[in-house]
Structure formats: structure tokens, C-alpha cells
Write a structure and sequence with these properties.
The protein is mostly helical. It has two domains: about 15-80, Winged helix-like DNA-binding domain superfamily/Winged helix DNA-binding domain (Arc Repressor Mutant, subunit A, Orthogonal Bundle), CATH 1.10.10; about 85-130, no CATH class. The chain is built from five helices and two strands, in the order H-H-H-E-E-H-H. It has helices at about 15-30, 40-50, 50-65, 85-105, 110-130; strands spanning about 70, 75-80. Strand 1 and strand 2 (about 75-80) form a beta hairpin. The chain starts with 14 loop residues before the first helix and ends with a helix.
Length: about 130
């Protein structure tokens, strides 16, 4: 699955940070793997409407983190992955989470409500693991 960058201009998060976070998310979810080619700067600019320097800044940051590498004349490629969950397990969990999200919406929850609940459960489980 190719990364399709989205930039929220209304939020307080700089565009280059949003782009970097989307690459990291794709790495964690297994949508991007080592050796995969990232979209060109030109492609990201045309699809998201950001300035080329913004894309370059995001890619530079990811390169400094050792996640991607630019190859002269060839493009920008994923160097290493994030996350260690088996892709099949991730797919099964995604299906269950999608079903749960549908149930939450049927119960009247909005995206912000769902995010708050998931954040609370994550925080609670982190505390439980440290005990």
C-alpha cells in the first residue's frame, strides 16, 4: 500500500511533522517495508499541496532517524521498519478494531470520544504493566 499524505492545515502540527508521522505510522502498520520507495517530492507536493521544502524537511528528519535513505538519481527508500508485530496478527486485530469502532459509532460515539477512550485504555494498561 502506498502512502497517501494528508496535511491538516487547521491543526497546530507543522506539515513536515505530519508527513513524518504518516511515514512512521505506515512503517508500524507494515504498509511500508524496507526497500519500498517513497513518493517523490514532486508527487507529495502535487497530492498534498505543501511546499517542496516541507517535504524535504520531513524526509531529512526521517533520514536522520535512520528510517529512510535517499539514493542519488533513484529516489528515497525505506531503510528499516518500525514495530515488530506479525502482519497476520496485525490484520486480525485491525478487523476486530474496525468492528469495535463500528459498534462505538452505533452507540453514538464520535471520533474524539473514541480517541479519548482508546487513549484512556492505553494509559491504564501502561500503568498496569509497570506494577
Amino acid at each position: 500500500m502506498a502512502v497517501e499524505f494528508r496535511v491538516d492545515r487547521g491543526g497546530g502540527v507543522p506539515a513536515y511533522v505530519q508527513l513524518g508521522n504518516q511515514v512512521r505510522e505506515a512503517l508500524r502498520l507494515g504498509w511500508l517495508r524496507p526497500g519500498d520507495r517513497l513518493p517523490t517530492v514532486r508527487d507529495v507536493v502535487s497530492s498534498s499541496g505543501v511546499n517542496p521544502n516541507t517535504v524535504l524537511k520531513a524526509y531529512r528528519q526521517l533520514e536522520l532517524e535512520g528510517l529512510i535513505e535517499a539514493r542519488q538519481g533513484s529516489g528515497t527508500f525505506v531503510k528499516r521498519s518500525l514495530g515488530s508485530v506479525d502482519p497476520e496478527a496485525m490484520a486480525r486485530l485491525r478487523v476486530r478494531l474496525a468492528r469495535w469502532t463500528g459498534d462505538a459509532r452505533e452507540a453514538g460515539m464520535e471520533d474524539e470520544d473514541i480517541q479519548a477512550l482508546v487513549g484512556d485504555v492505553l494509559a491504564e494498561s501502561t500503568v498496569d504493566r509497570t506494577r
